[in-house]
Amino acid sequence: MTDARTDASDTARLRSQTPSTSRSAVRTGAVARAPWILLAPFLALFVLTFILPILVAVGSSFMKVTRKGLFGEAGVTESFVWFDNYAQALGDGNFLASIGRVLLFGVVQVPVMIVVATVLALLLESASAKWPGAFRAMYFMPYGVPGVIATILWAFLYVPGLSPIVDVAGLVGIEIDFFAPETVLWSIANIITWTYVGYNMLIIIAQLKAIPGELYEAARTDGAGPWRIAFDIQLPLIAPALVLTTVFSIIGTLQLFAEPQLLATFSPAIDSQYTPNLSAFTTAFAYNDYNVAAAQAVLIALVAFLLSFAFLRLTNRKNK
Amino acid sequence: MKPLTRRQLLGVGIGAAATGLLAGCSTPGTASANALPVHPPAGGPVTLTYWAWLKGLQKVADIWNAKNPDIQVRTVPIPGGNAGGYQKMYSALAAGGGPDIAQIEMRSIPEFMLVNGLVDLNRYGAQDIASRFDPTLWSQVSFTGGVYGIPQDSGPMGSFYQTSVYDKIGAEPPKTWDEWAATGRELRKVDAYIDVFPLNDASVFCAYATQAGATWLKPGDDGWVIDMTDDATLKVARFFDGVIDDDVVSTSIAPYGAGWFAAASKGQIAGWTVASWGDAIIEGVAGGSGNWRVAPMPTWGADGYGSSYLGGSTAAVLASSKHPAEALKFTTWMCSDPEGIDALIEHCGIGWSPAADYIGAARRQPSEFFSGQNYNEEVFVPASRQQSPDWSWWPITQQSFNILADGFRRKASGGTLVDAVAAAEEQIMTAFRNKGLSIRRAGS
Predict the structure, then answer these.
(1) Is B20 an interface residue toward A (CB < 8 Å)?
(2) Which of B31, B151, B284, B416 is a Cys-bridge partner for B354, taking CB atoms 3.0 to 4.6 Å apart?
(3) Which helix (H) or strand (E) holds B220?
(4) Which ipTM did the prediction report?
(5) Are A90 and A185 within one domain?
(6) Beta strand pairing status for A63-67 and A76-80?
């Protein structure tokens, strides 16, 4: 988008500077048109599958259906109700609880995952690492397992009666219930961490590889050990990658859906509104209340936007 | 006039498209198909699409297809009910598409009516086939003078139990729930639970309350009438509060989950009060052959009924269908003709047939797994006749069950089922009103 805009303004400037003959007008016209033609497939899909659905959802979130008779057989009216649906969504204790739940999840899981990913990346990029390529592939592998499969896989490691972990813990005298109301959130956190640590590690490694070799040489010449290099050269220089992975993780946390949805069949503690996305999904397609679901979806988007924005502001200020 | 720039044009275009879309896009499911003229029978051959989660259903359709070249049925497998199937149907209906026939649970029929998703089959002559079906089940698909689905299977309840575990304490299967609780206490001494009680699935509690004589929601002249805090429901809630507190039933093992199978095969779960379709699940318990039997469901003493229904589904014709008359012909054959019923049992392993006078040839034989007992004729035929005729489902069943289950889950942290039921009644009334429906409490 930005590229296209600069291109367009460049050509406009060009046009105003050069005296316009008919041939060059045609040429500049074609040049001005080119980015739009090239962008058209993207723009069409972007508008159709992104902008329009958002507009429809926002519009829908302000409407309400009233029915006469037992099922609306005596008449259905639809009316504009301002923020009634938002009030209903925010008045729903389960929906609020789901937002609180993923926030708690994010506060614990995101830092753990980013720290683990950073440590792994630093280890694999350190001079003394053995077979870094093999380990990199190994740590990244869980990301190649689809979330649904990963969840089923872990569920079998969690479920009592089948799980070797529960059996071994039982031998030592520890009773673990991975599906209890107070533990299941962390059982999900474990699956998410397992899946995404390798992915985040790879982004950080990419940034580490971009650090020029001279910096390391200079540091070593000045007598810096591996710890000093990690803390004073590598960490400051991979900060952008850390910010990026953290923002992605915050957004991902708010969108938790597949893992709790699947684990619900194993754990009675997971209800149909366990996470905000599950909540909107249930409201729309199990309760058929598209209007309130739209309001919930808009609220989720707002929270994700606010959190990402707040985090970026925070890190920007630190940099200054 | 200055010509518009491309950007302005694009902006105008997007704006116009958005306005048009928003204007044309009212909330889905607010227009009724049953107010439109009936679809005339097709002149030539038609192909019906049938969404269902029954396995092997195409084999049943093929039997029909071979004999009816003009009405061909193509089945499409979908996820079961609220595990994704309904979500798929609702989105298809909202988008104006969808199959001709869909598998919909008995309890979800009113939910689909609320989004104008179903065809009133009486407009195509369904009243003429009413006598072929069990009257209780037929009444559960009949609303406001119409019929909105053809009953396909159902689940009269009985009590499955492991003879080897009962023999350890020398017990007979209990006849009443009080005896059941006493037997359960004995079984705890041999490290077995008599049954499990799911806190996250309210349909089981609902079935027990129905057996005790409760009718939670009734259609009234001026809207819905709710009565969830009647004596029958509260009695059942108090009873299960007691047995859960005394650790007579397990609430941590989910019925027919992996943990349940493991516990059942080790004899730690002695039995299961469930619908007739539980037989197929129990046959998956390792080493269970010859060890299980079936007894009638325990009763609530003098009150209530001998059994209850748990589960059950219909073949409903969706509002998107252009051929309801043909769809009705096929579903009538499938659900009430002995050939259709036997095929459904053989290929799909359906639950109890809702036909009035045919249970299926395969179900009239004694079962080797169930200790040679002819349990279908012995237990489930009488059970299917001892049902509450007054029960009816309502348009937000799933939401109500979720509300109840949310309350039940608090049992794990000190709440009670009695409180959960009372609180659920309030919340369900709010949910009705949020749907734009009118509701009042019985007797008010």
Answers:
(1) no
(2) B151
(3) strand B217-220
(4) 0.71
(5) yes
(6) antiparallel
Q: Count the Cβ atoms, other than its own, within 10 Å of residue A233.
A: 16
A56:B25 CB<8 A: yes
Give the class (CATH, top level) of B46-154+310-375: alpha beta
Q: Which of residues 115-134 of B touch A (CB under 8 A)?
A: 115-116
Q: Are residues A227 and A312 in the same domain?
A: yes
The rounded Cα B40 to chain-centroid distance in angstroms is: 31
What does the block give as tokens for A23? 């041939």
Nearest to B367 by CA among B376, B379, B358: B376
Q: Which of 221-260 (B) contact A at CB < 8 A?
A: 223-224, 251-252, 254, 257-259
The pLDDT tens digits for B45-99 are 999 999 999 999 999 999 999 999 999 999 999 998 888 899 899 889 888 889 9
How far is B376 from B360, CA to CA, in rounded Å?
A: 10
| Residue-level pLDDT at B312 | 93
pLDDT for the residue A318: 63
> Considering only CB atoms, which chain A residues are within 8 Å of B10?
43
Q: Which domain does A17 fall in, by range?
A: 2-50
**Contact, A181 vs A269, CB < 8 A?**
yes
Q: Provide the CATH number for the domain around residue A170.
A: 1.10.3720.10
Whether residue A149 is contained in a domain is answered as yes
**Quick one: A200 and A309 in the same domain?**
yes
Quickly count: other Cβ atoms within 10 Å of residue A154's Cβ: 22
In a domain, A234, yes or no: yes
Give the E-state strand segments of B106-149 in sequence order.
142-143, 146-147
Residues A107 and A8 in one domain: no
- A57: amino acid identity, one letter: A
Domain count, chain A: 2
A chain contacts of residue B86, beta-carbon cutoff 8 Å: 285-286
Q: In terms of DSSP H, where are the helices of B175-277?
A: 177-188, 202-211, 231-245, 258-265
pLDDT digits (tens, 9 = 90+) for A261-284: 888 878 777 888 899 999 999 888
pTM of the full structure: 0.79
Residue A79 domain-assigned?
Answer: no
Cα–Cα separations (whole angstroms), residue A18 to A8, A21, B365: 16, 9, 96
Q: Is the residue at A62 inside a domain?
A: no
